[in-house]
Fold:
Amino acid sequence: MILKTRKLLYVREEPTKDAKLIIIYCEGNKREDQYFNYFSEISSKIRLEVEPPSHHDDTSPNGLYQKAVTHIIDAYNPKYESYDEIWLVFDTDKWGEKQISETREKCKKYNWNVAQSNPCFEVWLFYHLFEFEEFEGMNISKKWKQFVNSKISGGFDFKKHSIFIETAIKNAKLKFNNSMDIGSSEVFKLAESFYPFIEDKIENAKKIQGIS
Structure:
């Protein structure tokens, strides 16, 4: 998809007092933060509080879970007292099925949510513009990053391509089919939880771009 312009597609809005609050603990400290913060800025109806890791943090699924427990369960922090949803966003990557399964079970205790991508977050980004496609080395995170950059001229641009979130939801659901096979991403579940709050802004951005 070629976009006609890079001009501002929205006016930044501060969240209202009763905006829905979703707290996201993610494995990556750049891509995920940029992506979710884009949506948090375009609507006053939603607050996406991203908690990216620092350099010394344990970024494994269990590490993200323990960080959430420390922030929300063990210590009082007014920032977290009125959250609507908690999400852990992580890759399949090198963590192994055992640790991921254990983390999922732990999250059930607090009714927290998991959005896993196999093998990496770039799978989710890819679906903003394309349906599932096989390629050599697709089980390797580094290969996915190269593949996305080869398919999208200049690579995924968070300020340009994020408006195709509805397409990403549809494409990811088509591949998912209740299975975390390679090339699957559960981030569509998180996207579905906040998309209704930004839908009008996204549709307006598409109109600016002349996208039906």
Notes: The first strand starts at residue 20 and ends at 26. Residues 52 and 89 are 10 Å apart (CA to CA). Residues 20-209 form one domain. Strands lie at 20-26, 46-51, 85-91, 113-117.
